Request: fold
Amino acid sequence: MYSIDHRITVETSPKKLHKALTKPEELSQWWTKATFTEKPSPTLNFHFGENHRVDMQVIDSSPNKITWQCSEGPWVGIGQFEWNIAPDERGSVLTFTHSGWESIDDFHRHCNSKWGFFLGVSLKNFLETGTGTPSPNEPNI
Reply:
């Protein structure tokens, strides 16, 4: 199995980084429009335009680790999304892993590039300057 892995350093506290990864109003500022439903299980709902929705069941949301499982959308059956947060002398270090890929194909490469942008540019800028670049405003890569 293969994975997508990223590591970034962000000049913010672990608490603020955790909030940016768990609160719909924060996720909407750097990834895409997000909402939250509690039933039947805690789920983040992401809206990419009018007709494309991705649901992520929240498996874990502890202070230093967040885990999602896609329950609707293109990543159903492709592992889990895991975010690990650690304090750093410059603020926080975020490691991201999307595990469970059967091969490295064009979809894997596309997702890897998009996650690189959304984490390394959009999330980082949102937390450090107050302005992210959420979908649909990201570059066409």
About this structure: The first helix runs from residue 14 to 22. The domain at 2-129 is CATH 3.30.530.20 (Alpha-D-Glucose-1,6-Bisphosphate; Chain A, domain 4). The mean pLDDT is 95.
